[in-house]
Each structure stands twice: as structure tokens, then as C-alpha cells.
Amino acid sequence: MKRLLPILTILAWIVLGVVSIGSDCSSIVGGAPTGLQVTADTDSTVKITWNAPAEGTPDKYIVYFQETGTSGYTTIANNITTTQFVHNPNGKTGTYKVAAMFGSQEYQSLTTVSTVPVATSALTVAELNAAGNSGYGWNRTSGAGATYSMTQAANAANVDFYITDFQTTTYSIASPDQGPTDPGNVVPAGSWRVNGIAGPLTAENAPLPAHSNTVYFNYQDITQTPFLAGIYTQDGYYALAKLDGFNAGDKTYQVSGWFQLIKGLRLIQH
Length: 270
Known about the structure:
The protein has one helix and 18 strands. It is elongated and about 75 Å long. The strands form four sheets. Strands 3, 4, 6, 7 and 8 form a five-stranded antiparallel beta sheet that branches. The chain has two domains: 34-114, Sandwich (Immunoglobulin-like), CATH 2.60.40; 118-259, no CATH class. It has one helix at 4-26, and strands at 34-40, 46-51, 60-67, 74-80, 84-87, 94-102, 105-108, 113-114, 118-126, 135-138, 145-148, 161-167, 170-174, 196-198, 219-221, 227-232, 238-247, 252-259. With 270 residues, the protein is mostly beta strands. It is 9% helix and 39% strand. InterPro entries: FN3_dom, FN3_sf, Ig-like_fold. This is Fibronectin type-III domain-containing protein. It comes from candidate division WOR-3 bacterium. It holds the Pfam family fn3. Residues 32-123 form the Fibronectin type-III domain.
């Protein structure tokens, strides 16, 4: 019995030690990054930023990207120790999320950020002197497109382009500021946006051309349908307009739009 007691005492201390170690391990608390944001680093690369978890500084961060049209995320950075990362998506758009690693435990952000442009289904846009709205513009908060009358100066802050026939039988997509001097003579003076228009473009999902005065002009003749037009707005946004379904009798087009909510980013894959 005397020999057994020391052995039992040693075993008890071992058990207590294991329990203590287990308790220490379970006390390691981690958390997910918060406050994810995405901005344009250049006109074709993006910067993802976030806040460190409230629980403390993790060992590292992992950044994930899901390309538009795919079903899963891929790891694009797995050893980040700062709270930002610049990604070159090679012309692609998609969704980002970030995870914090505490030891072997991964805590993924509860929110994601996206560079996918906001799509607006086809809307009817009329020639300036035809019946119906001839102006079209995108909401800077939601990215949604809508049509507007060019005969009301109150709409100047909403319009990004309009359709006109500067010359008989030739239709054009034009910057709103061209309205007051348009031969149609129905657009009042106002603070109409001075936007640039590029086209016809050949690839609907390719990055839009970088803004340049040799590429973007105050109007483009609609030489074909569908007609793809890149829009660079006065306030620094990129968008794509697709003009199709021309109705010669009504002098209307069916216009679909894609607006890139990330200011200065010309990626438009959708």
C-alpha cells in the first residue's frame, strides 16, 4: 500500500496536467475579420481591406476569390499579415471573402464584397424626338439603370447618355451635355453630365477601354445592332450599354446596362 500511494499521486498530477493543458488550448479564442471593403487600386486591379477581429490579432489572413460564373472560391493569398491585399484579377470580376487564422482554426468573414457590375434588363429608349424617354442613367448607390425624359432639366443629374439622330436616318448615342445644342431642340439648358462614349465594342465581358480622349467621345454613331457602348462618366464610373432590338416605326432601342459600382474600375464581366 505504501508503494501504491506515490504512484497514484503521480498519476493524479499527470491527469491534472493534461486537463490544465486542455483548458489552456480551449481558451484560445479567435474571430472573423470585419468591415470588408473593395476599391479600385488601378482601373483594372482591386484593393480589399478589412478590420482585424475584435478577439485579437490572428496569425495570418487568407483571401478567397470566386470568379463570376463559377461555383466555388479559390485561395488567392494565404499568408497575409496586414489588413489589406491588392489583387490583379486579369480582367475578371467576382466576389471576395477573408478568413483569419488563429492557430489551426479558421474564422471566415460573415460578409463578402463584390466587383460584379449591377445588371439592368432591357428598357425601351426612344430617339430624342420620338415618343418616350430618350435618356438613360444609372443610380450611383444601387447601380440600377432607368430611363428619363430629356425635356426636363431636373433630370440632368440622372442621365448618362441619350439617343438622337443628329443626321436623318443616322442614330447616335450621345453624352447628355450635347442635349441643349442638339438639332432636336427639345433639351433645356442644365447641368447635364459630360460623359465619354466608346464603341462599338466587340466583347461584352472584356474590360472596358481605359478612359482616354482618343477612345471616348461625346457621341458615337450606332452603326450596328447589337451595339456595345462603353460609358465613362463625369464622376469617374465605368458602365456598359447594349443597344439592340431597333424598332424603326417607333424609333426605339432595347437597352440593357451594366454599371460598375467600384468607382474607377473598368472591369465589366457579368
